[in-house]
């Protein structure tokens, strides 16, 4: 570094280059109370600490109040990563439950933390340390909690790729039922057996799965998928109908543009909206999506919200950064010069409809993301060139035909939406994929074949209908 | 001639990972003809504390977008940003809001 010579004691300082503005602190007044401001929030308004606190807390309640999807007494699973947004979310729930009756939140929270240390390059000792730290934080809340390891995603049932019995059409539980459930609800001891985890063959298997992925972009998508499915499975087996996740407005804006670049344009509303109902029985809600990451960072700092930092996903040497990282860099860079960027992208997302993601039948539902297959009509033209599968040379002759067909990567393609096709192509060989994905794919391929046969066979002896 | 300036420099939100995982640094800036401001402090940090991959912390003469700066617990946007003149015993905190990479 050539500037290094400039350093070092008196007299060697840099010249008085470009200076702008006044260098001294002139605390601007808080726009609410006139006290001295501590930060500037989204639209350039200065807020003091106290007014910022009120603003932040109010926003959470307003978000839930406006959307009215969480019933009183309902069991809600908060998905925590240890990161700033989900930690701030947990604090909002704690605040909300301790408030006086009129403003009190009335649902019953439990917590889940997924340890992703294996794929984030943490050593066993580091993983244990993060986990112990996280467990202490969860325990301190007094809420029931679940600790899960990403390795457990390899043991998920194939049913996680099918929507559960939805409430669509049926009215939800009545208010009375909800309140009764609330009274019956007993605080249980959380699942603690996750805490005594020791890595074994499943860690190796998980690492092989991630190693085999060809791009960092597909690796990010894979991680999100496994994590979502693991949380969903916990929600299903433990009886939570709602899951809350902590994406901030900044994250939502980044995800909107990322997903656009990943070919998921049709699903932006479910992927980033307040409510994600693709799983049927479990509704995912995103109550933090109105806060910028700056607001969250200041809140956590001012009000001592503890966080646990996870290192980024491990990338291979000399690998290109993921689209996720590139979009983050791009958007935040743009935001620096055009401060309305993030909120404009975010607000554009508000105008999108969830309808294109709705799948009516299994045959038109994406195997991996459960959104409607967005490929009608354009299959041959637009998609095929990008999706030519490079099958490794396998001697197919000695395999039994139906299994061999179901076990080829190309056979999965018709089951996937456009975006998932692109990601799937960059995943490793089928043998490395999680067992639940393969099991469900095989089931669907077989059932499609049977349907095909039943359509073809009876054609001959069918009587013409008299009408 | 400005006297040496003692500061507490802190890193959080993952920015500490670029500084050997150390969050709090007691720093004494040497005397120099110009008063110390944040611009010069960043240059000093780059040369003295930041050992590798400076592009993950800095961009040009400022911090990378997505890294917040607090001076004595207040948003640096209220304090003149790069032009803020550091006082002895000031606290400067950098919080990363980035996902990494
Ligand atoms: Zn105020
Ligand atoms: Zn899909």
Automatic annotation (TrEMBL), chain A:
A Gene Ontology molecular function term for this protein is:
tRNA binding
Q: Could you tell me the gene encoding this protein?
A: CTU2
Organism expressing this protein natively: Patagioenas fasciata monilis
Q: What is its main location?
A: cytoplasm
Entry keyword annotation includes Transferase: no
Pathway involvement of the protein, from the record:
tRNA modification; 5-methoxycarbonylmethyl-2-thiouridine-tRNA biosynthesis
A single BP term in Gene Ontology: tRNA wobble position uridine thiolation
Is the keyword Cytoplasm in the record? Answer: yes
Which family is this sequence assigned to?
Answer: Belongs to the CTU2/NCS2 family.
| Stretch list, region Disordered | 1-27, 447-467
Compartments annotated for it: namely:
Cytoplasm
PANTHER family assigned to the protein according to its UniProt record, in alphabetical order: CYTOPLASMIC TRNA 2-THIOLATION PROTEIN 2
Query: What SUPFAM superfamilies does its record include?
Result: Adenine nucleotide alpha hydrolases-like
Compositional bias (Acidic residues) at which positions? Answer: 458-467
Q: Please name the Pfam families in this protein's record.
A: CTU2
Question: What are the protein's UniProt keywords?
Answer: Cytoplasm, tRNA processing
Q: Where is the composition biased (Basic residues)?
A: 17-27
Give any Gene Ontology cellular component: cytosol
Full protein name: Cytoplasmic tRNA 2-thiolation protein 2
Q: What does this protein do?
A: Plays a central role in 2-thiolation of mcm(5)S(2)U at tRNA wobble positions of tRNA(Lys), tRNA(Glu) and tRNA(Gln). May act by forming a heterodimer with CTU1/ATPBD3 that ligates sulfur from thiocarboxylated URM1 onto the uridine of tRNAs at wobble position.
TrEMBL record, chain B:
Localization, per the record, is: Cytoplasm
**Function field:** Acts as a sulfur carrier required for 2-thiolation of mcm(5)S(2)U at tRNA wobble positions of cytosolic tRNA(Lys), tRNA(Glu) and tRNA(Gln). Serves as sulfur donor in tRNA 2-thiolation reaction by being thiocarboxylated (-COSH) at its C-terminus by MOCS3. The sulfur is then transferred to tRNA to form 2-thiolation of mcm(5)S(2)U. Also acts as a ubiquitin-like protein (UBL) that is covalently conjugated via an isopeptide bond to lysine residues of target proteins.
Q: Could you mention a single GO BP entry for this protein?
A: tRNA wobble uridine modification
Q: State the Pfam families in the record.
A: Urm1
Nucleotide-binding in keyword set: no
Residues annotated as carrying 1-thioglycine in the record are: 101
Q: Where is this cross-link: Glycyl lysine isopeptide (Gly-Lys) (interchain with K-? in acceptor proteins)?
A: 101
Keywords, comma-separated and alphabetical: Cytoplasm, Isopeptide bond, tRNA processing, Ubl conjugation pathway
Q: Which gene encodes it?
A: URM1
- InterPro entries in the record, alphabetically? Beta-grasp_dom_sf, Mopterin_synth/thiamin_S_b, Urm1
GO cellular component terms? cytosol
Q: What is this protein called?
A: Ubiquitin-related modifier 1
Q: Determine if Phosphoprotein is one of this entry's keywords.
A: no
Q: How is it modified after translation?
A: C-terminal thiocarboxylation occurs in 2 steps, it is first acyl-adenylated (-COAMP) via the hesA/moeB/thiF part of MOCS3, then thiocarboxylated (-COSH) via the rhodanese domain of MOCS3.
Concerning CDD domains, the annotation shows: Ubl_Urm1
Q: Which family does it belong to?
A: Belongs to the URM1 family.
Q: In which pathway does it act?
A: tRNA modification; 5-methoxycarbonylmethyl-2-thiouridine-tRNA biosynthesis
